[in-house]
TrEMBL record, chains A, B:
Signal sequence residues: none
Protein name: Proline--tRNA ligase
GO biological process, one term: prolyl-tRNA aminoacylation
Subunit structure: Homodimer.
Domain comment quoted from the record: Consists of three domains: the N-terminal catalytic domain, the editing domain and the C-terminal anticodon-binding domain.
Lineage top rank: taxon: Bacteria
HAMAP family (alphabetical): Pro_tRNA_synth_type1
InterPro entries, per database record: aa-tRNA-synt_IIb (IPR002314), aa-tRNA-synth_II (IPR006195), aa-tRNA-synth_II/BPL/LPL (IPR045864), Anticodon-bd (IPR004154), Anticodon-bd_dom_sf (IPR036621), Pro-tRNA-ligase_IIa (IPR002316), Pro-tRNA-synth_IIa_bac-type (IPR004500), Pro-tRNA-Synthase_IIa_type1 (IPR023717)
Species, as recorded: Leptospira terpstrae serovar Hualin str. LT 11-33 = ATCC 700639
GO molecular function annotations of the record: aminoacyl-tRNA deacylase activity; ATP binding; proline-tRNA ligase activity
Length: 586, 586
């Protein structure tokens, strides 16, 4: 492709609304343009990258035996009502009515649609397992779209759904998808960590997110430096650190703590550690009142609590509700008036015999020497892990102190179990002729987000450096020649490259060399070939490796010679990536 | 691909709601499934075909120098208001509100979006011409979706938009697109006729539709059997046939025609030809009252009238409106009470001096001997062509009698002119540094509709026969073998075909040969290779050409020998198509 016939609308300045590198660089390199909040247009260069990413996803999914479909974006409300998600999905779902007043939504995910479609096609255990997928546009009405295409309202997603006779078969496909995902991401140059994750409103028994470590990540993951463990912090089990020990507070039993309501305020006021205090969190969960006790330095992990309670809505109790139950806001302690209407949960980190400081159930007073065991019987309360993990907590596998990192989620796999197969009554006859409800898995990848994430990992002060597998063009040929004879020489090289199947962008624009160099470094073609003065005078070419910025000047005899040299260099880039893919898929 | 690992949900029975061949066959061959009214899911086999069609469109567009983009489906109402189409598009546009109550629509077409996107990228005449396109999902809330994917509510469209400094440049790209379109359609085996068309609410000066002649077509086209002329009947000029002559009705001047209101009733009652009567059509057009006179055997062409009046809404006048104007419903003749509030239009076919029969402006009476010239002065009325062409009308080019055919529209190209460039103020500096408003073209292809149209053209009583370029697989290998040794033999042939780059579906399902043969003929793979008894016993293979259903039994020595034979046959199919493409693009 000649740049003069192409569109390369690069910009020097970062766009005002961009705060992360990928967003800035996608705009500056002319890959995308914003059309409205959370809506982006892909320009030719950007679309080439996106299509290559799609290509990698497709070929690995096909290799894993999945079958590609394409389903409508518009999905009728009926099927969402059948699964019970029409109301649950809330405001993130774009809804609309057609001219006959029938309600639909723009599919944010397609469990329902695929269930309805696949159901009549699977009748016998012989038809299973089946893994179906599509690469198509999805919609989510994000409350706050941001980071460019990382959190947008319209995006391309690869979503796959597998159907099985039993859990064993589901696990097999789940493990295959796990490997496939690692291969897919490695294939586009992304290093990912699969982490234990929460299933959210998808239902199901197990799920893993594929995380790319990045300071701009919206998720926090815990990683064990010695074993293979990694988890989303929302899901990381917190276990007691056997090495930790603490000194109880020594002082008067009833303490006047005027206007000291928060743990931090009280600890500072009493000059003690926060862990010596008891934190009480009063909540409303789907109509039930819940009171949770945690150690003072811990935050409540709402996901853990929600999963334990099996509730949909969780919110703090209001002052009036607390009053009705006899709870004193800011000063709740284990001696609160017990009630059948109030469920008590004691975080598993709490030492039942340690003497904590807690609220005195009286305004402006705390009490010390509070032992949980004196207030509750074992079977009266739930003792479960509801605290958020923090850096240094013991690894749930091996006990080593965990580290915490920010991560971007690029993929997510779920064991859905029978949630949807039951809702849509997807049964097959097993090998004994008995009708059996199928079980399901689902597997998603955010395609556009992958593109942005690669940029987050592959950028420097000059711009982007694309992994060879998804670069918009492999080679950028920069030429500076004015007279027809020189141009003809360069054109013959360009043609030789194209004929050899090398994806080359020849920057033949009527611009100075500095401008062309900067553009090629900003956009990030893996290899730059300069045919400048050295070429015209001495027959030398300069080859730049964009990632390392190492430049080499090589003589060459014929066009074939040059093509061969370039092919070797490109081949080497592919080989490196291929090794990473093989490594990742183990 | 092995059929046992694929999805081939064929059916014997036609679906109940399908009335046309393509709809029936797409369902029966397991290419698509209906998810709701006008919404279809593509199954793996169907999607392969769709992607191949997209591939042909993409490669020809790229060859013609167009640049591929991808724009959001959600388009904000603001840009539609800027062009004035937010209200005009009516109920065909799916509209919705986001969580912040901002209005959007699901783009049915993208003139507005591309204008906003391209505007800042073109500053100088040097940036022009530019032709941008996308292949993406579009939405139209059809009042009556039908014929399967031919008229659906969600579909894939290739839409392109070109921007130019002047009309000359626009015309050049328009002609290129015209050729490109013919190549595209020929490339998928479709024989198309470009016909003069009406621009509808797109605005602009010229447009052509690419029609495939088919009895299920929703459009009527007129074709001249001697010259190159062809037109949409909505746009076909009607000129006086110099050979036609007629005899005026002889009888009493005022005729009692009790309860005879329609032209047919009156003509039958008076035993005269309909062409001897004057037809009066009373209408309301954007607030203006219009009375049109036509010869009795002609229908009003509303598009012609709309274009002449430049109006948006046209409807018959109501009885009360007619009464106010002094018009007698069913009996209007040229002697009606003239009024400044009533615009009169005389169809250009009318002979001003012929003695017609017309309504007598009195209930139950007609008058004969009515000469238009006695009632109107030349400058008092509009004399224009507003009648619908009929078979036998003279060709507007050469005068030969036109034939009429039904056609399916698969593509449409428009010279838009400055309608959108003005609305979005898209200007560039010309070579003299003067700011100049650009002019535009736009070019659309219905991708899914192409798929259905190919089936309409390529089917027989057994099913579909796909042109080689868009067949889901080129070769279907049917094997009937049970013992491992035979299966291994067949597998080695299958692998040799795959290794040679031949797209082959090996029907290794545990089904009888008759079932497999029927499936392969229904789905329509161009070539079927049978490795049955003849192969296992005598080393013979049977090759079937699906289109002609000619079967040939050939001996072969090695796998390479077989691969070579097949490659020749496939090559021949491609060559034939290629010739048609070259021919079409001239």
């Amino acid at each position: 492709m000649k740049a003069s016939a192409y569109l390369i609308p690069t910009a020097k300045e970062d766009p005002q609304d961009a705060v992360v590198a990928s967003h800035k660089l996608m705009m500056r390199a002319g890959l995308v343009r914003k059309s409205a909040a959370g809506l982006y247009s892909y320009l030719p260069l950007g679309l080439r990258i996106l299509k290559k990413i799609e290509g990698i996803v497709r070929s690995e999914m096909d290799l894993a035996g999945a079958l590609e479909f394409q389903l409508p974006i518009l999905t009728p409300s009926e099927i969402w009502k059948e699964s019970g998600r029409w109301d649950k999905m809330g405001k993130e779902m774009f809804r609309l009515k057609d001219r006959h007043d029938n309600e639909s939504c723009l599919g944010p995910t397609h469990e329902e649609s695929f269930c309805v479609l696949v159901k009549p096609m699977v009748r016998s255990y012989k038809d299973l397992p089946i893994n179906v997928y599509q690469i198509h546009t999805k919609f989510r009405d994000e409350i706050r779209p941001r980071f460019g295409v990382i959190r947008s309202r319209e995006f391309t997603m690869k979503d796959a759904y597998s159907f099985h006779l039993d859990d064993e078969s589901l696990d097999k496909t789940y493990q295959t998808m796990r490997k496939t995902y690692r291969r897919i991401f490695a294939g586009m140059g992304l290093s990912t960590i699969p982490v234990q994750a929460d299933s959210g409103n998808m239902g199901g028994s197990a799920s893993e997110e594929f995380m790319v470590v990045s300071p701009i990540g919206e998720e926090t993951l815990t990683i064990c430096p010695s074993c293979q463990y990694s988890g989303n912090i929302e899901k990381t089990p917190v276990i007691l650190n056997p090495k930790s020990s603490k000194q109880p507070f020594v002082g008067s039993e009833k303490i006047h703590t005027p206007a000291k309501k928060t743990i931090t305020e009280v600890a500072e006021f009493l000059k003690t550690k926060e862990e010596n205090l008891l934190k009480a969190v009063a909540l409303w969960a789907d109509g039930t009142y819940v009171l949770v006790f945690l150690e003072g330095d811990r935050e409540l992990n709402e996901n853990k609590l929600k999963n334990h309670l099996g509730c949909n809505e969780l919110r703090p109790m209001g002052p009036k509700e607390m009053e009705t139950l006899g709870l004193v806001p800011g000063f709740i302690g284990p001696g609160f008036p017990k009630s059948v209407n109030l469920k008590v949960i004691i975080d598993s980190l709490i030492d039942w015999n340690f003497a904590y400081i807690s609220g005195a159930n009286e305004v402006d007073y705390h009490t010390s020497g509070i032992q949980i065991s004196k207030f509750f019987k074992d079977d009266e309360v739930s003792k479960i892990d509801v605290s958020q993990a923090i850096e240094g907590d013991p690894c749930p596998n091996c006990g080593t102190g965990l580290t915490a990192e920010k991560g971007i989620e690029v993929g997510h796999i779920f064991k859905l179990g029978q949630k949807y197969s039951k809702a849509f009554d997807i049964t097959v006859l097993n090998d004994k002729g008995k009708s059996t409800t199928t079980t399901m898995g689902c597997y998603g990848i955010g395609v556009n987000r992958c593109m942005a994430t690669v940029i987050e990992q592959c950028n420097d002060d000059k711009g982007i450096y694309w992994p060879v597998s998804i670069a918009p063009f492999t080679v950028c040929l920069v030429s500076i020649a004015k007279n027809p004879e020189d141009i003809a020489k360069i054109e013959s090289i360009y043609k030789a490259l194209v004929a050899a199947g090398i994806e080359v962008l020849w920057d033949d624009r009527d611009l100075g060399p500095g401008f062309k160099f900067k553009d090629s470094e900003l956009i990030g073609f893996p290899i730059r070939l300069t045919l400048g003065k050295g070429f015209l005078e001495k027959g030398e070419i300069t080859i730049l490796d964009r990632k390392s910025m190492v430049e080499e000047t090589v003589p060459f005899t014929t066009n074939e010679d040059l093509v061969g040299k370039l092919q070797n260099q490109i081949q080497a880039l592919h080989e490196t990536l291929k090794k990473e893919v093989e490594q990742a898929g183990i």
